[in-house]
Design brief:
Rossmann fold; 6-stranded parallel sheet; alpha/beta; 11 strands
């Protein structure tokens, strides 16, 4: 007799995510598929949406789960649940889940590794890979220019490019450098992106600026934390010191990356608990947004504003 339990079927849909996001293969669907049979349906039970559109406003008869990879705070008037960067407490409605955790390769940062001193030291000095600076704090460009006064910093993106043309792929490019300028577009509590994890993946030491509480996730001994210095000049002096002191550089490069052992799997476990708690409830009980009162007026106003705005995705600007 076959006693295999039949999985509950749930209808999912993804909208308003960035270009290239794979709705069928991502940490959310893969986590849920371990416990449920997933059916992709434009009329879903559970709608995942992000920051790059307004289609989510056309969905009201479902449980709405917002995910942001940007530095905006979730609008809980428009979603039942949310995941993002901020350190928020909002009952069962929110989970802190930074965007770099969507990349499965990040788990490799926890593996033991042996740094080859010859390969690590015999590399070019520093790189800088950004598209533009339209919506970014000016400190990013200031650091590039000041550090370039010491040695050439190779810019491989479209912003301040000095190597002839933008590189086709970031990681193979930054692999050849001792340091990577890893600046977020803004300094926001909790807001750390792939700017940190990309150089770590290829053993280039991040010169990081952004999240002032980055030690909640990452070992501060494993990178240069610009926020900790009184001035940008003081931070640059530390980079220069490490560049000139091979032993100090190798020691810092060899440090564990995360703030705690098993960090990555712990975050995935928390995500699983969060999502299952949503799905295990009857649909109407899982709803957290209000359908009546001022909330109804607020939703209608947001939908009206969306029709008036000409929305252009910002993912190419914000990075």
């Amino acid at each position: 007799m076959d006693t295999t339990a039949v999985k509950k079927t749930i209808k999912l849909y993804f909208t308003d995510f960035w270009k290239g996001f794979d709705a069928c293969h991502n940490v959310f669907t893969e986590t849920l598929s371990r416990h449920y049979t997933i059916k992709m349906d434009p009329n879903p039970d559970y709608l995942f949406f992000s920051s790059f559109g307004y289609d989510h406003l056309n969905h009201r008869d479902c449980i709405k789960i917002y995910f942001t990879g940007e530095n905006n705070v979730p609008d809980f008037n428009l979603c039942d649940y949310a995941l993002g960067f901020h350190f928020l407490e909002f009952g069962d409605r929110y989970l802190r889940f930074p965007v770099y955790l969507l990349d499965k390769e990040v788990q490799r940062l926890e593996l033991e590794r042996q740094i080859d001193p010859a390969n690590a030291l015999n590399r070019k000095f520093c790189n800088f890979v950004y598209t533009n600076n339209k919506l970014s704090d000016p400190i990013r460009e200031i650091c590039f220019r000041k550090l370039s006064e010491y040695k050439q910093v190779d810019s491989g993106g479209r912003l301040l490019n000095n190597i002839g043309a933008p590189v086709p792929q970031k990681l193979p490019f930054i692999r050849d450098y001792k340091f990577t300028i890893a600046f977020e577009n803004s300094c926001v509590q909790g807001y750390t992106t792939e700017k940190m994890t990309d150089p770590m993946r290829v053993d280039s030491l991040p010169v990081y600026w952004g999240n002032p509480a980055v030690e909640s996730d990452f070992n501060k001994a494993a990178f240069v934390h610009v926020n900790d210095f009184a001035t940008i000049d003081a931070a640059i002096a530390e980079v220069i010191r490490l560049d000139r002191d091979d032993e100090a550089y190798l020691k810092q490069l060899s440090q564990p990356r995360f703030s705690e052992t098993g960090y990555y799997q712990c975050q995935l476990n928390r995500l699983e608990v969060f999502l299952r708690a949503i799905v295990e409830q009857p649909l109407e009980q899982a709803r957290r947004t209000a359908a009546y009162g001022y909330a109804q007026r607020y939703f209608a106003r947001q939908k009206k504003m969306a029709k008036l705005l000409s929305f252009k995705p910002l993912s190419f600007i914000l990075r």
